[in-house]
Write a structure and sequence with these properties.
The protein is α/β, with parallel strands linked by helices. 37% of the residues lie in helices and 14% in strands. The strands form 2 sheets. It has a 7-stranded mixed β-sheet with strand order 3-4-7-8-9-10-11. A 4-stranded mixed β-sheet has the order 1-2-6-5.
């Protein structure tokens, strides 16, 4: 099963597109962003329609990451390259300020194309400037992350009134090592939730992705929701695994090696666009909603964050 890069090369220069356009520095690919506000793919499963991502690719190497296809447009592959060739937008803050000058105030997601607090952020420190730009513009936003580095900016996030969604899909460490090899353990992320809540940050858990036939048993879901509640999360937002192009091949290649008996069932469960069967998805999210009710936690995306933007607006075209 292949997942090779798209052939975006020419006769004069056979390097991947990103290597012809970027500056490679300390293993990162630096490229100047033309825009910072991008549409969220429908397959992402999150509430926001628009996102800001200072990094593309992610060292967490999560098998089911729905952002993998973006690397193919750069002439890289959606598998190993996505995990190891991280694209950085050094002009992210300046470009975002320019974009916000004509933004209508709709809520933004931060960190969809790659965790915005992955290791690259230790080097580039783009997030404080992005948080500041969003706060000054009065634009509501939710940060998506698995990384404890977000605690560095907890004060900024609390003052900005931002939400932080920490991804915790399951608490079985064996599954985590197999499908999220570069990510912190579930226990570390649960402790992160507690620390963010203590710091005054509106912290919820993105229970994503729930893996069909691997992490969706009733006892697994119950254990995960119980521990999320114990960490003090404000709400849970469940998302069943999506397998859009790019992600599908990489995930199923692993599934064929690790659990070959499940491949046929996955082929039945997912449509061509990578969405799971509506009946299955409703059953799983319904179970999680019932568990959240037991523990007194809201379940689902919640009400959209809305504020009046503080900058003069022009029509977005």
């Amino acid at each position: 099963m292949g997942w090779d890069a798209l052939p975006l090369v020419d006769a004069a220069d056979e390097r991947p597109l990103i290597e012809r356009r970027a500056v490679v520095r300390d293993g990162f690919y630096e490229t100047q962003a033309r825009t910072m506000i991008e549409r969220v793919p429908q397959a992402a499963g999150i509430a926001q329609r628009w996102a800001v991502s200072p990094y593309r690719g992610c060292a967490h190497a999560c098998r089911g990451c729905g952002a993998r296809a973006g690397h193919r447009r750069l002439g890289l592959d959606a598998g190993r390259d996505f995990d190891t060739r991280i694209v950085v937008k050094p002009n992210a803050v300046a470009r975002l300020r320019a974009d916000l000058a004509r933004w209508g105030g709709e809520e933004l997601a931060v960190g969809v194309s790659g965790d915005c607090y992955q290791a690259a952020e230790e080097t580039y420190r783009l997030m404080p400037g992005l948080i500041g730009a969003l706060a000054e513009a009065g634009v509501p936003f939710t940060v998506y992350t698995k990384s404890a580095l977000v605690l560095r900016d907890a004060g900024l996030l609390a003052r900005a009134g931002a939400r932080v969604a920490v991804s915790i899909a399951f608490v079985d460490e064996r599954i985590r090592r197999a499908v999220e090899p570069g990510a912190p353990s579930a226990q570390a992320r649960l402790e992160l939730v507690s620390a963010l809540v203590e710091a005054g940050v509106d912290c919820r858990v993105l229970m994503a992705p729930v893996l069909p036939l691997l992490s969706d048993a009733a006892d697994q879901l119950a254990a995960t929701v119980r521990r999320i509640a114990g960490a003090g999360a404000r709400a849970v937002e469940p998302v069943v695994l999506r397998l859009p192009p790019g992600t599908r091949a990489w995930y199923l290649e692993w599934l064929e090696r690790a659990h070959p008996q499940l491949v046929a069932r996955y082929e039945e469960l997912y449509d061509r666009s990578g969405l799971p069967s509506p009946g299955y998805e409703q059953r799983i999210t319904g179970q999680i909603a019932q568990l959240c009710q037991v523990y007194g936690m809201p379940c689902g995306p919640g009400e959209p964050l809305r504020r009046e933007p503080r900058v003069s607006q022009l029509a977005l075209v």
